[in-house]
Amino acid sequence: MSEVTRDAFDRALDTRNVRGRSLYIDAWHRLLKNKAAVTALIVLSLMVVLVIIGPMLSNWDHEIPDWEHYSTPPSLETGHLFGTDALGRDLFVRTLIGGRISLLVGLVATLVSLIIGISYGAVAGFLGGRVDNLMMRFVDGIYAMPFMFFVIVLMVVFGRNIFLIFVAIGAINWLDMARIVRGQTLSLKNKDFVEAARASGATEFHIIRRHIIPNLLGVVIVYVTLTIPQVILVESFLSFLGLGVQEPLTSWGALVNEGAQELETAPWSLLFPACFLAATLFAFNFLGDGLRDALDPKDRF
Amino acid sequence: MLKYSLKRLLSAVPTLFLLITFAFFLIRIAPGGPFDSERALPPEIEANLEAKYHLDEALPLQYLRYMWQIAQLDFGPSFHYLDWTVNDLIAQGAPVSFALGGLALLLALAIGVPIGAWAALRQNRVADYTVMSIAMIGISIPNFVMAPLLILLFAITLGWLPAGGWAFTPSRMALPVVTLALPMIAYIARITRGAMIEVLRSSFIRTARAKGMPEKTILFQHALKPALLPVISYLGPAAAAILTGSVVVERIFTIPGIGSYFVQGALNRDYTLVMGVVILYGVLIILFNFLVDLVYAWLDPRIRYDEQEA
Q1: Residue A226: enclosing H or E segment and its boundaries?
Q2: Which DSSP symbol is given to B234?
Q3: Rounded to two decimals, what is the model's pTM?
Q4: A259 and B148: CB-CB below 8 Å?
Q5: Do A141 and B14 touch (CB under 8 A)?
Q6: What domains, with CATH codes, occur in chain B?
Q7: Residue A69: what pLDDT?
């Protein structure tokens, strides 16, 4: 073996120069190669920035009408980029304020369902046996209930409180999360690497922290990106029925509802909020798909 | 299979019991009652009304009375639509809602499955990407956005179809059914595509190809059946989605189905009507999930529920 190749071998074997790439860095690189997912990520970032900053930059307020322009189409002259609604309120600002609420509901309600779902699923999966069986039968039981109708009843019963929307939506969405996390925990628990960790003397806590949680994370991330649009949709659905967010606050669903009623005379009041809502849902779904592809070890090659 | 079926149906009883109990007490906790109106009723009349509907009794007694009624399949009188029983209202609204939902489901299956299978056969080609992007748009546009847009296009601009109302005629049914079916078509297409791709990669398809079986036979005899399994299991949640979706669609197209009754009933504190519809929906969901499981076992011979129990 010549000196040159030996050098090359030595360099290759010198572990000090090798940095391990974690699963998540790998996944991140795969995600960046997915054009649809990257576009979705950019659209969502822009949406968040626009929704936060947009209303501050506008001359108009989401509550105070412009007394000179009722139901005017979008124009640069009047300064109402998206036109005004029947009460003369600027639709650009209202669409963005509505976006704040819709996105906020999406995030908070998803967080609620995440917390309930993960703890429930992880406990069931980790304990296993009879406890697991009982806990999952309970989930099956409430799975069969027409939950949308309970939410409608809840909204009617307790008034249209925005915190209640968070809790109600979060409370119906945790079931899937619990099932997924439980299944994942159950299969991870019996994996060889957990066995190996246990054999080499790792504590339970170490196993959960170092082996179970990081492996759960991928599934959870994918699921969260797919839950957020669902939640936004549920909120819009409630607002559309007039049971969600109340005036003077608004959300995309409420705006679509108002727009749908003035469809013939003022189609712009439907089109703008509808496009914002659809674009956001679209981006979240694409991002979720991209993440699933990036994190799914099955399609690694 | 019979044993499994019986077991499943029996296990639905506690679920239904829980559902009814929960719904009963939830709606009774609500502030306001069915006889609240702009003009306050004289106290004597209100007392008479409450006595007539047994609302003056203690809650547990009302609950027991209601349970006894339900056991006889009597949902009681409506509190809002006087002279109507809830059974009458449901009997009037249900055929409309079922026709709407059933047709939408059939349409979704008839279009979604072929589209998905077709995309799978052209995986990662232009046709696949195009179809799947369109499907994603279909999923991302909610019913209540799609419906006004369709009305704007087909009813107002083109004037081809009526914008609302209901009759059992193709022109009246077209828009609501299509609105309800569109997101489902998209979901079913995506699920079929994913499942089909996975099945086509599996070894029994490779074997079939290796022994020279015609591609058509492989697709229709071997690949389609297992690829349909995930679609079948989607139908359970799909039924629930149709029910909630039809609430919106019925409202937009002013269709007198049970969805419209439900929202009106909840707003009017029409206790019995709301309960009746919730129970009906619960039964439907349970029934649908049960049917899905049966079809599942029939399609996939590896699943045999009875043996698992043994």
Answers
A1: helix A213-240
A2: H
A3: 0.76
A4: yes
A5: yes
A6: 109-250+291-309 (1.10.3720.10)
A7: 65
Spell out, as residue ranges, where chain A has pLDDT lower than 50. 299-301
Chain A closest-CA separation from residue B283 CA (Å): 9
Nearest Cα residue to B157 out of A233, A127, A263, A209? A263
Write the CA distances from B91 to A50, A182, A215, A218, B73, integer angstroms: 49, 42, 51, 48, 13
Residue range B146-166: average pLDDT?
Answer: 79
Tell me the chain A residues in contact with residue B12 when contact means C-beta distances shorter than 8 Å.
144
Q: Residue B85 — φ and ψ, nearest 5°?
A: -95, 160
- What value of ipTM does the predicted structure carry? 0.71
How many C-beta atoms lie closer than 10 Å to residue B197's C-beta? Answer: 18
**A52-73: b or e for each residue (b if 16 or more CB lie within 10 Å)?**
eebbeebebebeebbeebeebe
d(Cα A220, Cα A96) in Å, to the nearest integer?
29
Contact B300, B22 (CB under 8 A): no
Closest CA to B52 of B26, B88, B23, B82: B82
Q: How far apart are CA A218 and CA A216, in angstroms?
A: 6
Average pLDDT over residues B93-113: 88
Residues of chain A contacting residue B285, judged by C-beta atoms under 8 Å apart? 144-146
Given a cut of 80, is residue B245 above it in pLDDT? no
Interface contact flag, B30 A278, Cβ < 8 Å: no
Strand partners, A84: A90
> What are residue B123's phi and psi, to 5 degrees?
-55, 135
Overall fold of domain A19-299:
MetI-like fold (1.10.3720)
Chain B residues close to A233, C-beta within 8 Å: 142
Q: Which two tokens stand for residue B218?
A: 């492989």
CB contact under 8 A, A237 and B15: no
Residue for token digits 């957020």?
A228
Q: Are A30 and A298 in contact (CB under 8 A)?
A: no
